[in-house]
Write a structure and sequence with these properties.
Distance between the termini: 45 Å
Number of strands: 0
Radius of gyration: 22 Å
Largest sheet: none
Strand content: under 5%
CATH architecture of one domain: Orthogonal Bundle
Structural class: mainly alpha
Order of helices and strands: HHHHHHHHHHH
CATH superfamily of one domain: MetI-like
Shape: globular
CATH topology of one domain: MetI-like fold
C-alpha cells in the first residue's frame, strides 16, 4: 500500500510539472486563434508566422548574443573566483562569500533599478553592453557556487604529483585541474546561459532600445495568449533539449577520451 502511494505521488508530481508543457506544445499545432480544447485541427501556421517575424528574429539574435557573452564572462570569472574562495584562507573570507552570493537573494526588480541608476550615474548609454553587465552581476554567483562544489571534492594530490614531475603551474592547471573540474565548469556555463536567456526584469530596466526574446514574449502576452507564443515556446523547448543532449555527449566523449 505504501509503495502504491509513493508511485501515485510521483506520477502526480510529474504530471503537475510536465502536463502544462505537453499542452503548450499541443496548442502550438492547434488551428484556432484561441489555445483551448477541443483541438480544432492540425496546422503549422503559427510556426510559419515565426519564420516571417523580423522583430522576433532581432530579439532572438540579441538574446543569443547577450547570453553567449554572459556565459563566457560569468563562467570564466566564476571559475577564477571559486579557487581562492575554496582553497585559500584569508581575512574577510566569509564576508567575501556573502558579497558574491548577495545578488542571488536581491529581488530582480531592485537589482534592475540599482543598475539603471548606476549606469545613469556613470553616464553609460543603455545598450546590449549594459544588459550583458547586468546579467553578469546576476549570473556569476551561480557559476561560483557550481564550480566551488566541484573544487570541494577535488583530490589535490594529483596536482602535487604533476608538480613533482616538474610541470609548471600553468601546465598543471590546463592538463590536470581543468579537465577534472570541466563537468562543473560546463554545468555552470549551461546554467548561466539558461538564466541569461530567461532573465526579464533586469533586462527590462537596462536594455534601452535593444529588445530581447523575453521582452518580445511579454509584448505578445499583454493582450492575451497569442498562438505564436506557444509555437515559440515549443521551439525553445526543443532547442533546450538539443543543447542539453549536446552537452551530455561532449562531456561523455571527454570522459571516454581520458580513459
Amino acid at each position: 500500500m505504501g509503495k502504491r502511494i509513493i508511485i501515485a505521488y510521483g506520477v502526480l508530481g510529474f504530471a503537475f510539472l510536465y502536463l502544462p508543457v505537453f499542452f503548450l506544445v499541443l496548442f502550438s499545432f492547434n488551428d484556432h486563434i484561441i489555445p483551448s480544447l477541443p483541438f480544432r485541427g492540425f496546422t503549422l501556421r503559427w510556426y510559419r508566422e515565426l519564420g516571417h517575424d523580423f522583430v522576433l528574429h532581432e530579439a532572438l539574435y540579441n538574446s543569443l548574443f547577450i547570453a553567449a557573452v554572459t556565459t563566457v564572462a560569468s563562467t570564466a570569472l566564476g571559475t577564477l573566483a571559486a579557487f581562492p574562495l575554496v582553497r585559500c584562507t584569508f581575512r574577510l573570507k566569509q564576508a567575501s562569500q556573502a558579497l558574491i552570493i548577495l545578488p542571488m537573494v536581491i529581488p530582480h526588480f531592485l537589482m534592475g533599478v540599482a543598475l539603471l541608476l548606476f549606469f545613469a550615474f556613470v553616464n553609460l548609454p543603455l545598450s546590449r553592453f549594459t544588459v550583458v553587465l547586468g546579467h553578469i552581476v546576476f549570473t556569476m554567483p551561480f557559476a561560483v557556487l557550481i564550480v566551488s562544489t566541484r573544487l570541494y571534492g577535488f583530490d589535490r594530490t594529483l596536482e602535487l604529483a604533476a608538480g613533482d614531475l616538474y610541470a609548471s603551474p600553468a601546465r598543471v592547471f590546463w592538463h590536470v585541474t581543468l579537465p577534472l573540474i570541466l563537468p562543473g565548469v560546463a554545468g555552470a556555463a549551461l546554467f548561466v546561459f539558461t538564466l541569461s536567456m530567461d532573465e526579464f526584469l533586469i533586462t527590462y530596466f537596462v536594455s534601452g532600445q535593444k529588445g530581447t526574446l523575453t521582452m518580445y514574449i511579454w509584448s505578445l502576452l499583454k493582450d492575451g495568449i497569442a498562438p505564436r507564443v506557444n509555437a515559440l515556446a515549443s521551439v525553445l523547448l526543443a532547442a533546450s533539449f538539443l543543447l542539453l543532449l549536446l552537452g551530455w555527449r561532449l562531456l561523455d566523449r571527454g570522459a571516454a577520451g581520458r580513459h
